[in-house]
Every structure is written in C-alpha cells, then in structure tokens.
Specification:
The chain has about 220 residues and is mainly alpha-helical. The protein is about 90% helix and about 0% strand. It has 5 helices and no strands. Helix 1 (about 1-50) runs antiparallel to helix 2, helix 1 (about 1-50) runs parallel beside helix 3 and helix 3 packs antiparallel against helix 5. It is rod-shaped and about 160 Å long.
C-alpha cells in the first residue's frame, strides 16, 4: 500500500510539472516566433528606406528561421484544441506577411522606394494582426500555466502527504513487527521456563522415589 501511494503521488507530480514546463516552452516559442517576424520586418524596412544591402542580412536570417519556429509551435500546441486553430491562423498570417515583405523587396529593387511604399500599409496592418494573435495566444497560455502551476502545487502537497502517510505506515509496520517478535520471544521464554520447571519437578520426584526404594530395600534386608 505504501509503495502504491508513493508511486501514484509521484507520477501525478511528475505529470503536473511536465505540463507546467510545456506551457513555459509554448510561451517561449511564441515569443521567439514574434521576435523572428519582427526582425524580418525591421531588417526589410531598413533596406526599403536606405537601399543598403546590409539591412537584408537580418531579414534573410529571420526568414530562414521562421518556418522552423512555426513548425515547432504547431507541434507544441497539437494537443491543445483551443490553441491549435490559432496556431494554424498564425501560420497563415505569417505566410501573408512574408509574401508582402517579398513583394516590397521586389518593388524596391526594381522600381525604387516610391513603389515599395505602396505595400507598407498592408505590411504594417498584417504585422499588427500577428502581434494581436500572438498576444491572445500568450494570454491563454498564461491562464493555462496558472491552472497547471496550481495543480502542480496541489500534486506536490499530495505527494508530501502520501510520503508522510507512507512513512507512518512503515513505522507502524515496524512497531507491529517488533511487538509480534517480542511477544513470540516472551512466549517462548515462558514456555521454556515451564518446561524447565516441569523437568526439575520430574527429577525431584525421581530422586525421591529412588530414595524411597533404597530405604525400602534396606528395611527388607534388615528384616531378612
């Protein structure tokens, strides 16, 4: 019983802590995804304004990472029926934003800054939509994290209680075992004492009987 209680409470605590860690990972991945998109937007904006190629490096690096970020985020949210549709929508919005950014880059390279400015309004609005959606997902995940953290604390308390109960049960079993062994030893000692007393009594009677026979023999000899 002690082992079963300890196993169940420990297993529950491990699962609760794993869920808390999972929520932290989701929040970190959401932040990383938004940061990557911001880097892409900022890098391309710098290029659109200045025309200098050095601003394309952070844009290109961010574009190279964003697909991996989105894929990882979708994997993390695959078991969450509320967040899963939002992750799918975020992927669509990010795809749209990347298309707008590519269009702006192409126009800037072919027709100059004036043509690129035509896509700026759409790019800014789509980025705001992405920020709003990520903010909503972060808010929902923090609520979930709060509930999971509370379950983790409760599971920890139950684990401590289970450990205390298990310890008390173990001590109780040790005490009962000691009591039974002690009782058995005392019973054996009493039985041995009774046997020794009976043996001594038998020997005393044998000696008495032997003395009586010897006395009777002497009397018979004297009479003869």
């Amino acid at each position: 019983l002690d082992a079963v209680l300890s196993y169940r409470s420990t297993r529950t605590l491990i699962k609760a802590n794993a869920r808390v860690a999972h929520s932290h990972e989701v929040l970190a991945q959401l932040e990383a995804t938004l940061s990557t998109m911001t880097e892409a937007e900022t890098g391309l904006r710098g290029y659109l304004i200045t025309g200098e190629g050095r601003y394309l490096k952070p844009y290109q690096a961010a574009v190279a990472r964003i697909e991996e970020n989105v894929t990882h985020l979708k994997q993390l949210l695959a078991d969450n029926p509320e967040q899963r549709p939002r992750a799918a929508l975020l992927e669509i919005q990010i795809g749209l934003q990347l298309a707008i950014l590519r269009t702006g880059l192409s126009l800037r390279q072919k027709r100059g800054l004036g043509a690129a400015r035509k896509v700026a309004a759409g790019e800014e609005q789509t980025m705001e939509d992405i920020r709003a959606l990520v903010g909503l997902m972060q808010s929902e995940e923090r609520k979930l994290l709060t509930r999971r953290a509370e379950r983790s604390r409760t599971s920890g308390q139950y684990a401590l209680i289970g450990l205390a109960i298990g310890t008390l049960l173990s001590l109780g079993l040790v005490f009962v075992g000691y009591y039974l062994i002690r009782r058995d030893l005392l019973a054996r000692e009493r039985a041995a004492s009774v046997l020794r007393a009976a043996h001594d009594e038998v020997e005393r009677r044998v000696q008495e009987r032997t003395l009586e026979l010897e006395r009777s023999n002497r009397e018979l000899q004297d009479f003869a």
